[in-house]
Amino acid sequence: MIEACLPLFNTLVQKTIPIGSEPSTANLVKLSGNFLLTSAIEALGEAIALVSKAGVDARAYVEPLTSTIWIGLPLADSPGAMRAKASRPVDMGERSLRAY
Length: 100
Hints:
The protein has 4 helices and 2 strands. With about 100 residues, the protein is mainly α.
């Protein structure tokens, strides 16, 4: 059944990887991948905040990471956007905080 649907799947997503015969297995693998990516983005945000507070230029810090360690990963596009968002106040109703 899955093999018959692969041409359709491949038009909808970047890559289809058959992982097992049970849909729950594929769901678990996808969920764990999303968790890893989200955790890495969060860790990068924390690292940027840490070095920024010590006076290190965030862009100078992020550039070597995204051009060597994380080259080609979705994270490579995230730090610039993350840093740009961090320079704007975050609206929290009655309070306004400055993110990192």
